[in-house]
Amino acid sequence: MEQMDSEKDQLGEQLIRASRLAEIGEMAAGFAHEINNPLQIIKNEYTLIDMIFSDLKKKGQLNETENLFDIQDSLDQIHKQVERCATITQAILKFGRKDESVPQDLDLSVFIAEVTKMVTKKASVHGIAIKQSISQGLSWVHVDAGQLQQVLLNLYNNAIDAIIERHGSSGGELSIEAHAVSNTQIEIRVADNGSGIRSENLNKIFTPFFTTKPVGKGTGLGLAVCYGIITKMGGQMTFDSEEDAGTTFTIRIPAIHQALSNKKTNLRF
Ligand SMILES: Nc1ncnc2c1ncn2[C@@H]1O[C@H](COP(=O)(O)OP(=O)(O)OP(=O)(O)O)[C@@H](O)[C@H]1O
Ligand SMILES: [Mg+2]
User: Which of 45, 80, 96 is the last residue of a domain?
Assistant: First the structure.
């Protein structure tokens, strides 16, 4: 009974969090959309000024004085910062977008391996060993491939960042594990031996825009997006973390029987 009660509480909490995320997503996307328009105009104006400048230089109508260099520096800075704003507004728009998902039958054992391959190069550059253990004959799932890929990549990239923070470029371990918990559910675990999450941040990580990464690096939307996607798939996402030891994210998603899926998995990213 106690277990049922706690599961009910968790489910309730998850539903409240999901609907709050949807509301925040909608509001943030509204802001981002409004900011995006003037941003595009600034970008166009910058391009125009830059063109005029290059033209004048080519014609020898500009004296290469210190003032000119200062102006050029300022222009470069404007360009860089506008690009940064554009990246952030794009991320927010993506977060708030209510895209219709297009579910398809996916063979998870093939799919997870394909997504993992996308980060192997990045991991090896940082001396991170990847361990992958996927149960043979894992049931299939019926989900949007692009969205599941986005979730896994977000988790892998977070893990890699945390590993680099703790280990630098040697001693990192990232492990991916998938198995069926029942006929109807599959569990995927992404574990790292990185920095871990500080106890005061444990209840903040799914909050949109919460990030501990340096300015300009993270938008803090990764996990909020992952959480929304998994919840919409009818799944759950939980985590366990210990400071200076590592973090494990666990996803559970509904499985379909292999016998029911007669379509071949089409791995296109
Ligand atoms: N595997 C992990 N190990 C340690 N901390 C983590 C891990 N995953 C997430 N976090 C913490 O949760 C925060 C929020 O993660 P989230 O993915 O939402 O945003 P982000 O990675 O900071 O930025 P973005 O994903 O938008 O680039 C991170 O800044 C980090 O502090
Ligand atoms: Mg992230």
Answer: 96
90 CA distance to ligand 1 centroid (A)? 18
* 184 in the same domain as 56: no
Ligand 1 mean position, distance from CA 211 (Å): 6
Distance CA 212, CA 200 (A): 12
**C-alpha 171, offset from chain centre:** 24
Please give the pLDDT value at position 44: 92
Q: Is residue 250 part of a domain?
A: yes
Out of 10-24, 162-176, 208-222, give the one with best mean pLDDT.
162-176
Structural domain of residue 119, as residue ranges? 104-260
Is it the case that residue 251 has pLDDT exceeding 50? yes
- Residue 170: inside a domain: yes
How many domains does the chain fold into? 2
Same-domain check for residues 7 and 49: yes
Ligand 1, residue 157: give the atom nearest the CA. Answer: 21
Check: CB of residue 96 under 8 Å from CB of residue 134: no
Cα dist. 104→83, 157, 260, 264, 267 in Å?
Answer: 35, 25, 12, 10, 11
The answer, yes or no, to whether any atom of ligand 1 lies below 6 A from the CB of 195, is yes
Q: Which of the pair, 235 or 99, is modelled with greater confidence?
A: 235
- Beta bridge partners of residue 247, listed in sequence order: 192, 241
Using most ligand atoms within 8 A of CB, pick from 156, 157, 205, 244 the residue to mutate for ligand 1: 205
Q: Whose CA is nearest to atom 31 of ligand 1?
A: 212
Nearest CA to ligand 1 atom 8: 158
pTM of full prediction above 0.70: yes
CATH number of the domain bearing residue 148: 3.30.565.10
Which of 96, 120, 150 delimits the end of a domain?
96
